[in-house]
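FORM 7B: Structural annotation worksheet

SECTION A. Query
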Amino acid sequence: MALVGCGSAVPAATITNLDLSARVDTSDEWIRSRTGIGARRVAGPGETVTSLATAAGQAALDHAGWRAEDLDLILLATSSPDDLFGTAPRVQGALGACNAVAFDLTAACSGFLFSLITAAQYIGSAGMRRVLVIGADQLSRWVDWDDRSTCVLFGDGAGAVAVQACPAAENGLLAFRMRSDGSRNGCLTLAQSTQHRPLVAGLSAQVGGFTPIHMNGQEVYKFAVREVPAVLAELLEASGVAAEQLDWLLLHQANQRILDAVAERFAVPNTRVLSNLASYGNTSAATIPLMLDEAVRDGRVRPGHLLASSGFGAGLSWGGALVRWSGPQIDASLPSAVAA
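SECTION B. Predicted structure
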């Protein structure tokens, strides 16, 4: 499986730390020192997971030089769908990918990485040739904007990668690992509402809906700084790759301190750690492809570069992958994340 195209899309509106300080008891210094986040994008009227995912997907198709009708599969990693029955088919229709099967994959902040690995399995065992993997989330709709411990963290966005079947010598997914631990699920949840309403003859039915995002920040931080280095170390050892051979660390963009801790563990200099937290915050399943697209477009990530990537978050779930980028260079003058 070769990674041959990328794209991204973000909402037009930016909410800065200063903006948030007018609503909750916080400050730019407080947020930056604890998270590295300076601003986030929030979807406005007419901007949805579908529109973001479609724009990111189209940009990836354009980069790869593909027609939408040549796609075999669209995988949409999201935990905030526009339709609980599935949002990927909406994206398929909007793109005009009439020959592709499309479905959602839900694994929160690990979703894009899990979807990329899933795409490799379909290419390897089902004879599919071209797959579009999209990560898109609109968590702003599920944030309690009066809870300063969570509202400062999350933003909306989408990123996509075009992957295709290739000879073994050109494989872009060198190795991967996936993990889950449901015993720690309560650390980060977007849970159903437990409200019920009377139905008939003394029976009741649950009212549909979800409660705002709940997170035990300290436990999630401890989980990430312990499990992410461990899974990446396992990958490197199994693959016979030394940390100094990596061109980039491409991690889920949750907290700058987590990125710094992982880099320190492998003695990777900060100049080789990809981060755009300051501009976008945590966009959940979108963070990895959004960051990749930015780095490809500004010329940091070039064909042949080796990246160690890790997604981690709610579930709890986490995983890692060693990937090699092979897509063409993009005109550096083009914007990295287009408004949907």
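SECTION C. Observations
The radius of gyration is 19 Å. Residues 216 and 303 are 39 Å apart (CA to CA).

SECTION D. Sign-off
Analyst initials: ____
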